[in-house]
Each structure stands twice: as C-alpha cells, then as structure tokens.
Write a structure and sequence with these properties.
4 helices, binds protoporphyrin IX containing FE
C-alpha cells in the first residue's frame, strides 16, 4: 500500500485515540463509545504501524519503545477507572507518551 496513505491512516488512528482519551478521562457521559473508540483506534494504530514496518527492523529499538508507549496509552483509562492515578494525571502522561511516540516515529533515532 502507498506509504503516504499508511502514514495518514496511522495519524488518523492517533487522532481517534486521543479523542477517545479526552472523552473517557474528561467526559461525563458516552464513556462506552469512548472505550470502543479507544480499543479500535489502538488496534488500528498497531496494524498500520506494522504494515509500515513490513519487516520490523530488529536491530533498531525505536519501534519497540513505541510499542511500550502504545501499551501504556492502552492501559491509561483502566488506571484512571481503578483510581490508580487521577484522570488528569493519566491524561498528561498519555499526552507525554503520545509526543514521545510521535518523535520516535519521525526521528527514528536508534
Ligand atoms: C499511540 C502510539 C503512537 C503514536 C502517537 C504514533 C505516532 C506516529 C507519528 C506522529 C509518526 C510520524 C508520521 C510521519 O512520518 O509523518 C509515526 C510514524 C511511525 N509509526 Fe507510529 N505512533 C504510535 C504507535 C506506533 C506503533 C505501535 C507502531 C508499530 C510498531 C508504529 C509504527 C510507526 C512507523 C513504522 C512509523 C514510521 C513511518 C515512516 O516514516 O516510514 N507506531 N508514528
């Protein structure tokens, strides 16, 4: 598939993921829709990410770190729901993880 289309789809998944985080961590109602969007966008980001990698470069670690950040963002709403951390803290940490994942995707530093 066209690499530009894959990148655009990857970013679309990221937009949907953060929309779902806003709804589930700050929103008052419609949380079921938010958790469905959260799950779907996470899977979508992962699938398109691996489609872009084709064969994961095992000698590089940037994409493995991204997987860890992806997992953290995936666990975020559960951390808030179980009151492990306040929602606002989870949101800030997820934003920081998203920024780090974006930088890793752009810079591919190691
Ligand atoms: C929620 C976590 C993630 C965020 C916020 C994120 C964000 C981004 C962003 C902003 C880019 C740059 C796109 C561009 O070049 O314009 C990117 C690239 C990329 N991402 Fe992700 N990503 C995430 C998770 C993942 C995962 C889990 C994978 C799969 C292993 C992945 C694989 C890639 C690849 C391979 C590229 C490079 C595309 C290229 O330049 O060839 N990403 N990501």
């Amino acid at each position: 598939m066209d690499p530009l289309l894959l990148k655009t789809l990857h970013l679309a998944g990221v937009l949907a993921l953060f929309a779902s985080l806003g709804a589930s961590l700050l929103g008052g109602s419609g949380k079921k829709g938010a958790s469905i969007l959260h799950g779907i966008s996470l899977i979508f980001i992962l699938l398109v990410g691996f489609a872009m990698l084709k064969r994961p470069p095992m000698h590089q670690s940037w994409w493995m770190i991204k997987l860890g950040l992806w997992l953290f963002i995936g666990l975020g709403p559960a951390l808030a729901k179980r009151k492990v951390l306040p929602s606002s803290v989870v949101l800030v940490l997820c934003l920081a993880a998203g920024v780090a994942a974006s930088w890793l995707g752009l810079a591919k530093p190691f």
